[in-house]
Amino acid sequence: MLNVGVLGAGHLGKIHLRLLNQSEKFNLVGFFDPDAINGKKVADEFGYTYFDNINKLIDAVDVVDIVTPTLSHFDCAKKAIEKGKHIFIEKPITNTLEEAEELLFLEKKHKVKGQVGHVERFNPAFTAVKDNIHNPMFIETHRLAEFNPRGTDVPVVLDLMIHDIDAILSVVPSKVKHINASGVSVISNSPDIANARIEFENGCVANLTASRISLKNMRKSRFFQKDAYISVDFLEKKVEVVKMKDAPDNPGDFDMILQNAEGLKKQIYFENPEVENNNAILDELETFADAIVNDTVPVVSLEQGTNALRVALQIIASF
């Protein structure tokens, strides 16, 4: 088992603490929170060991799980890496691209591993269909959330849209060519609603919409590719896969056949991949443990987290 410590005991930090405490791949040593009152309260309520000094906690573990506000990600990660510790760091990886690139340098220098908490990569709906997504040419995503003051310290692009940016970058085998975007501030000082159009060098286009002042929650993505349409509902954990193939010479009575203007006939059929229930946060943490033990590349590497941040910041810059 890997000895792990958590930095940050806020809403998400407490979830990480609970899951790490349950995990068979980690031994939860304890946690640090700069708010001593909150730290002692969490320790008293749940029985976790509270460290009042960040360096003492880092020294006591093999893995540091960083679940602090984005502005402190870099400082926490740098402390841990320079002490030779592996890091799991919540998304976005850092506040600036320069910070993220320095972490990449430090990761290689100190020969440690890092993973970024892009949890939607472990959403069972996405994992159920990811292998069906091949060279999509048009992608549309909607990530809408009811207002919650938590997270409004950063633009909605870094708070919500970055989940979809990361997922898209993981399935589009091409570099970004051009970005157009717009954002509007309604309640916060930073944009609460944003729309971005990302054009890739291979011709793929992705249209992303994110809002944190919606009247309802929605997290849906649709992928269009040659002879297939794939819909992923991240919120409801549902998928829909519609495929086309050349129509048979003698179609059955219930076969769905389409004929275009040139007379080409295609048969439409549906696939229903099984969506297995899971705890996505536990899965992302435990696959990181596997990457450390087996010396493999983490599912969401620091480099991938940096790429997602780079695109997110380009979107913000184009507002």
Automatic annotation (TrEMBL):
Cited Gene3D superfamilies: Dihydrodipicolinate Reductase, domain 2 (3.30.360.10), NAD(P)-binding Rossmann-like Domain (3.40.50.720)
One GO MF term attached to the UniProt entry: nucleotide binding
InterPro entries listed in its UniProt record: Gfo/Idh/MocA-like_OxRdtase_N (IPR000683), Gfo/Idh/MocA_Oxidoreductases (IPR051450), GFO_IDH_MocA-like_dom (IPR055170), NAD(P)-bd_dom_sf (IPR036291)
The organism's place on the tree of life at top rank: Bacteria
Limits of the Gfo/Idh/MocA-like oxidoreductase N-terminal domain: 2-118
Residue ranges of every copy of the GFO/IDH/MocA-like oxidoreductase domain listed in the record: 156-216
Residues annotated as transmembrane: none
Pfam families attached to this UniProt entry: GFO_IDH_MocA (PF01408), GFO_IDH_MocA_C3 (PF22725)
Protein name, as recorded: Oxidoreductase domain protein
Organism: Cellulophaga algicola (strain DSM 14237 / IC166 / ACAM 630)
